[in-house]
Amino acid sequence: MGASGDRITGMGIPGRTAAVVLAGLTMAGLAVLGTTKGGWDTADPIASVLGAIAGIAGFGFSWYIWRRTGPETDPHAIAGRLAARIARDEEEALRQLLGGRLGALIDVGFTVRASGSVTAPPSPVGDEGSASGTAAPGWSVARIAEFYRRMEPGRLVITGSPGSAGGSDAEQDAGTGKTVAAVLLARDLARGHAAHPQVPVPVRLSAPGWPGGTIDAWLVQHLTSALGLRPREADVLVADRLVLPVIDGVDEMDRTPRLRADSRAAKLVAAVNDYESAPVIMTCRRDRYKALTRARSQARTAAVITLRRVRPAEAHSYLVNRVAYDDHHRVRWQRVLAVLDDTHAGSGPGTAELRRALDSPWRLTLAATVFQEPDASGRDLLRDPADMLGLAANGTLDGYLLDNFISAAVRAPRRSTDRDQPPMKAARLDPEETWRRLAVLAAHVSGDAPAGGRPSRAATDRVPPGTDIVLDQLWPLGGERRVLRVGRLLIIAAPVLVSAPVLFLSQVSTLSKVTILWPIALLAAVAAGGQRRPASHARLDVHYLRSRTGLRRMAALLAGSAVVGLVVGILFGLTVGFTPGIAYGLTVALGAGLTHSVVSNAEADATDPRGVIRADLTTWLWYGIAITVLDVLGLGIALDQGLAAGFMAGLGLGLVFSPAIGHGGAVALQYIAFLWCVRGRLPWRLGRFLHHCRQLGILRTAGGAWQFRHRELQHHLAARPLPPTGR
């Protein structure tokens, strides 16, 4: 059985064909029944009711066939397909982190210290690891997967080592490559899953996005919402310990400078400790993990590996491969390369300082990017790498690199980090405008944005602290009250503006126009008045019906809808006759219940940061179209009010009810309101802008969020809303 697209699970071709054929026959049956006795405008209401019943029966049988052909029952087969998906995704993530060049990996070594009953493997050069903790100089990041497979048990914490250049505790191990090591480990473990099935499939999770609760529940939620597994399949994978949580960024969970036993990071580590003796991997900055240890909240029974700093010879090799790849560029970089050469015995100004400054992968990436920025003509480069010696000598190199990184990244030759994408077009972002926009976002996610008023406590609780740029969670940046007011106006305006033009151009009587339009406006106003909290997510989730829970929910909804439909039909029957009234009520109510059953309030696919908005908008349109079709059957046929009346009433009511009851539209409308409130500070096509920044290596993606390439860059931008001058 093959997978379908990017989803992990699939169904057989016979089952899919049967479902499609049955759905087609159902629609054909509706068409035949609807056109009996003279066409759609004069169809018998009894025929309409029979058509609705036939449609529901055919739809239900289609789903029965669908359920019988899936889901996959062999957990190891599911794990194998999941591993293939993870290997592809993590290779793309690694490509992003390395600036589009997988060959740019700096193979730093690491030491290992074990706590509890953990056995570390001996190093390749024969230095034995032990349970008490021993240096393993022979291990390096390129072989971290081999190291992990030989651990027992597979519980690992990845930290960095402090630099020799000083700095605050929070910055001592910044940029040492913890996330790169975690992504590389996940990719290699997933690649080798077929050869090493005893090692679970790695699934990377963003620690700031931890929803609370157990690791099991978090994994199930991520597997279903982000990776497309069905609930039963996710449950069995987690229960059988066939997935390995790789939790990245434990140090980014709390804004407070000190971590205590009641911090979110400590609570997450406690959940990891409660995860029995199952394999788990975490990344955390050295100072934050030491704080957790002092608070007695460290991971029990785990090996802690410490990535060492980049040695001068390794930095030399990186720059040769990245920027000094031919004679012309080697001459430009000659003075820097000479400083990093192990045979270099010079002690000129800036020599020692430069060697210390370039001892982390992040600093090397900055230097290689900034000093390769082309000039305005594009025929020459803007800066001389030899200037780094003077900047390092007077202690300004770090600030200089960060000041010029955005400009250099934007003006660099277009090279997309996406494997299957061609080079980007010559039309580029403006460096200064890009700086200003990113500075707004950096200040907001860092908790420093004025945001037209201080972010509310609800917003602060909702937004993962300090790192994630999530489109539907940026609304406090526009001012909470202002975004709420504009969002309410949109909820009122959208259905009225859609319904009114076509309705007034139709041949429906004036009384019918007013009768249809004023309830839509009234309901829109009522729905807008109920928008007091951040909007809930909505997405189509037809796979939910393939579970017992989903089928029970659908049965309950249809039963409740039948009761509501009868009540509505009787009320309508008092004025139009009981037969057409009940036909209308049952048609609309049962159809709405069926529509309701395929809408989920879970977050959309977390692999695309733009997925939440797209899924919400799609669900809104789906609900509006579904209610429109049902109202065409009801008003246009059963009540003989004409197709135009049924069409516009259904579309208007669908657009109103959907955001009001959490079936799509609320998130999209709130997002549009937010963009209106921040116009001038952020672009209208914000998602597209952030996607381009990711392609340029300024941002990276982590699940359903964008993050700055490095937290140091985020803080630098947050403190400087305007780009530097005189660079």
UniProtKB/TrEMBL annotation:
<feature type="transmembrane region" description="Helical">
    <location>
        <begin position="555"/>
        <end position="576"/>
    </location>
</feature>
<keyword id="KW-1133">Transmembrane helix</keyword>
<keyword id="KW-0472">Membrane</keyword>
<feature type="transmembrane region" description="Helical">
    <location>
        <begin position="486"/>
        <end position="505"/>
    </location>
</feature>
<feature type="transmembrane region" description="Helical">
    <location>
        <begin position="582"/>
        <end position="599"/>
    </location>
</feature>
<feature type="transmembrane region" description="Helical">
    <location>
        <begin position="46"/>
        <end position="66"/>
    </location>
</feature>
<feature type="transmembrane region" description="Helical">
    <location>
        <begin position="17"/>
        <end position="34"/>
    </location>
</feature>
<dbReference type="InterPro" id="IPR027417">
    <property type="entry name" value="P-loop_NTPase"/>
</dbReference>
<keyword id="KW-0812">Transmembrane</keyword>
<protein>
    <recommendedName>
        <fullName>NACHT domain-containing protein</fullName>
    </recommendedName>
</protein>
<feature type="transmembrane region" description="Helical">
    <location>
        <begin position="511"/>
        <end position="530"/>
    </location>
</feature>
<feature type="transmembrane region" description="Helical">
    <location>
        <begin position="645"/>
        <end position="678"/>
    </location>
</feature>
<feature type="transmembrane region" description="Helical">
    <location>
        <begin position="620"/>
        <end position="639"/>
    </location>
</feature>
